[in-house]
Design brief:
The strands form two sheets. An eight-stranded parallel beta barrel has the order 1-2-3-4-5-6-7-10, surrounded by four helices. It has a two-stranded antiparallel sheet with strand order 8-9. It is an alpha/beta fold. α3 packs parallel to α4 and α7 packs across α8. It has a single domain, classed as Alpha-Beta Barrel (TIM Barrel), CATH 3.20.20.
């Protein structure tokens, strides 16, 4: 069994217990899902029956799983209702993940677009401070010993928070928590300016990640090709090998020494190419 597992994001419509089965049918070895609608609304209750079925299927299929938080969260929102709801929702997602036996919850941090002077190259200190305080509240209110949070690097569009290794390292240092880790996204990395298109580029980028965050902080990689090129600061996913990261970049990532114990999740579109995406990553994983 490979230490690297390759999986994909699947729908949990009809209940979380449906997600493992959908992942299995597509040939995934691990999976990610939304435990609630990513666009809003009240989260459906996770009953004891759903919990038991989900855990039994994950155990039967030997699958690790991940929950992704909704799209609309924003720790840095000047609208206090949005900021407080962000804290509540992420706390709830950690509670729901803990109930289901999911180890990690992946989240973006939001945007400082409401703050004066904010842009893609500058996040005001007030927005960063509010984000950090919000995360501290989440950690205070979340179940101890349960699911852990993964902060995902962003694509750098607008005034998003967390679009560099330095920004993530600064936030994590201020939180002073050992159990806070990171999730990289290949499309986001390329868009925000980290070159991962060749073996040498991947090695340089991963050394920079280790310098700022330490390789032990990395727990998951979202594998997405990118419709936009290096530094274009847009979040546009593409199927594997059809975008600007390219085949050589993905082969280099799968072979890199820092990523041998890290799982990979596809977030590419579920169309006729999704199973090919999965098959390619599995194939390239074997080439060392």
């Amino acid at each position: 069994m490979h230490k690297q597992k390759v999986g994909l994001h699947v729908s949990a419509s009809g209940g979380a217990a449906n997600a493992p089965e959908r992942a299995k049918k597509l040939g995934a070895e691990c999976f990610q899902f939304f435990s609630r609608s990513p666009r809003g609304g009240t989260a459906s209750k996770i009953t004891k029956e759903i919990e038991q079925s989900f855990k039994e299927k994950c155990h039967e299929y030997k699958m690790e799983s991940y929950i992704h938080t909704p799209y609309y969260i924003n720790f840095a929102a000047l609208n206090k209702s949005i900021a407080k709801n962000t804290e509540r929702i992420i706390t709830e997602e950690l509670e729901r993940a803990t109930q289901l036996g999911v180890s990690y919850v992946i989240t973006h941090l939001g945007s400082a677009k409401d703050w004066s002077g904010a842009n893609s190259d500058h996040i005001p200190n007030g927005a960063l401070k509010q984000t950090i305080e919000g995360l501290k509240t989440v950690y205070k209110d979340s179940p101890k010993g349960g699911a852990q949070l993964l902060l995902e690097i962003s694509a750098g569009a607008g005034a998003v928070i967390g679009n560099s290794f330095e920004d993530l390292a600064y936030i994590i240092k201020k939180l002073a928590k050992r159990n806070i880790h990171t999730c990289l996204d290949t499309a986001h990395m390329l868009a925000t300016g980290y070159d991962i298109r060749t073996t040498d580029a991947v090695d340089k980028t991963m050394k920079e990640f280790h310098k700022h965050l330490g390789k032990e902080r990395l727990k998951l990689v979202h594998m997405n090709d990118s419709k936009v090129d290096l530094g274009e600061r847009k979040d546009r996913h593409e199927h594997i090998g059809k975008g600007k990261v390219g085949i050589n970049g993905f082969k280099a990532l799968l072979a890199h020494k820092y990523l041998q114990n890290v799982n990979f999740i596809l977030e590419t579109k579920h169309d006729e190419y999704i199973e090919k995406d999965l098959a390619l990553l599995k194939k390239w994983r074997k080439i060392k």
